[in-house]
Amino acid sequence: MSELGGRRKQLVLAVCCVSMVMVVLDITVVNVALPSVRREFRASVSALQWTVDAYTLVLAAFLLPAGAAADRWGRRRVFMVGLALFGLGSALCALAPGAGALVGARAVQAAGGTMLNPVAMAIVATTFPGREERARAVGVFGSVSGLSLALGPVLGGALVDALGWRAVFWVNLPVVAAGLAGAARWVPESRAARVRRFDPVGQLLVVVLLGGVVFGLIGAGRDGWSAPVVWGPLAAAAVAVPVLGRWESRRADPLLELGLLRSVPVVSALVMAFAALCAFGAFLFAVTLYLQGVRGMSALRAGLCLAPVGVLIVLLSPWTGRVVGRRGTRLPLLVSGAALASAGVLLLLIGPGTPVPVLLASFALVGVFQGTVNPPVTTTAVAGLPVSMAALASALASAARQTGSAVGVAVAGTMLAGSAAASSAAAGGAAFTSAAHGVWWLLVAAGVLIALLGGAGPGRRSSGPGGGRQAEARAQSAQSPR
């Protein structure tokens, strides 16, 4: 690709940020809309779980092959297909006549999403070839993501209160149209020099593994652990693990590089990424039901209560990137784990009438956790790896995050499904807050795990000459929450 002028580079970055805004907004916006969806469709807790998990599960399962498709067929082409598919899914969500149709439409939305953020990151990396300009561009990319999380609950709440829950999906369509026009006009086409071969068998096994776990966990809350629709998918997922390992070990170009799993930093990063988003996904799902179902808040007020989470992500992510580059990953991970565990402990104390300042304090701690966890986790994943392997390790960390989010929502819904207050606010909320203790203990456990793994890592990374600068550049490139 020929060198682009400065103005066109900025326009390419703006188009890529558009995709980030949409995909990240749909995480928090949809959570705020869940109680309204539930009332209109008389939806069960499991249907609400699938409304969130159909999105994150597809993202997790197809993140890697979407990147390979872009390398093979052209990044701009796949990016534009992703935008169009995301727009189609959004329209189908807005027109959904029932909960089942909404879940299916969310899967279509996510299929488009798999072609957006990872491909957009590759476009940014290609457009900004210099190390320093690339670090700045990726820093903007990550900051926009944090800003989207900050605005998501408020924007979603305002749309739901003013126009109804379907508006949170309609609003994507003009953004998609602008993104398509911008991509066609300004984004140059690019492909990878070496293209990885597709691995359809490995992909199918990944779908069986992830889908089986999430399907089983969600079904347990509805049908109990002894039901065949619960242990059947879980058993299929268990069988898929060794089969996947054996299959991938025999391929010259595997979907999953199993050799990465022999690296202690990579495994540690994947565990922390999974735990972080498992806790965050469970938190968002449970807190949204609590604020609107138990406390009777409007969607907008609930969104304003959650705003401290996103604001602190925006404020802390750049600082965390600088700290990781200069001092290593230990301090940010210790702060992140301690903040998450403290938030879980504080949430254990809430009841139906807990003062709002106490809620805001616990939500702020979750924001500190999210604002300090992502840069060090991704930096840990790529530490000491060559550039080609570092890119794959970073993608695996992103997949671990999406998987963790899906599992967190599934676990939270299973814990809350048996609560009478989970389906009715008339009970005063006591049953819900009691059932939610399991979710808050999950946050405590995840925080302790992150702190232990982070504390065991090096305080200052050393990677030879220029290692500190490389670490800082990698940390800046890791500021995206997803």
Descriptive overview:
- With 482 residues, the chain is mainly α.
- It has three domains: 9-186, Up-down Bundle (Growth Hormone, Chain: A); 200-256, no CATH class; 259-482, MFS general substrate transporter like domains (Growth Hormone, Chain: A).
- The protein is built from 18 helices and no strands.
- It has helices at residues 6-41, 45-73, 75-95, 99-113, 117-127, 131-163, 167-170, 172-186, 200-223, 228-250, 264-294, 299-327, 330-347, 356-382, 387-417, 430-435, 437-456, 467-477.
- The longest helix has 36 residues, at 6-41.
- The protein starts with 5 loop residues before the first helix and ends in a 5-residue tail after the last helix.
In total, how many domains does the architecture comprise?
Answer: 3
Provide the gyration radius in Å: 21 Å
Overall body shape:
globular
Give the oligomeric state of the chains in this entry, treating copies of one chain as homo and distinct chains as hetero: single chain
CATH level 3 topology of the largest domain:
Growth Hormone, Chain: A
Number of strands: 0
Largest sheet: none
Would you state the CATH class of the largest domain? Mainly Alpha
The CATH architecture of the largest domain is Up-down Bundle
Number of helices: 18
Beginning-to-end CA distance, first to last residue: 28 Å
Unreliable stretches, pLDDT < 50, 5 or more residues? 420-426, 461-482
Global structural class: mainly alpha
The CATH homologous superfamily of the largest domain: MFS general substrate transporter like domains
The run of helices and strands is: HHHHHHHHHHHHHHHHHH
Beta-sheet strand percentage? under 5%
Proportion in helices: over 70%
Average pLDDT = 83
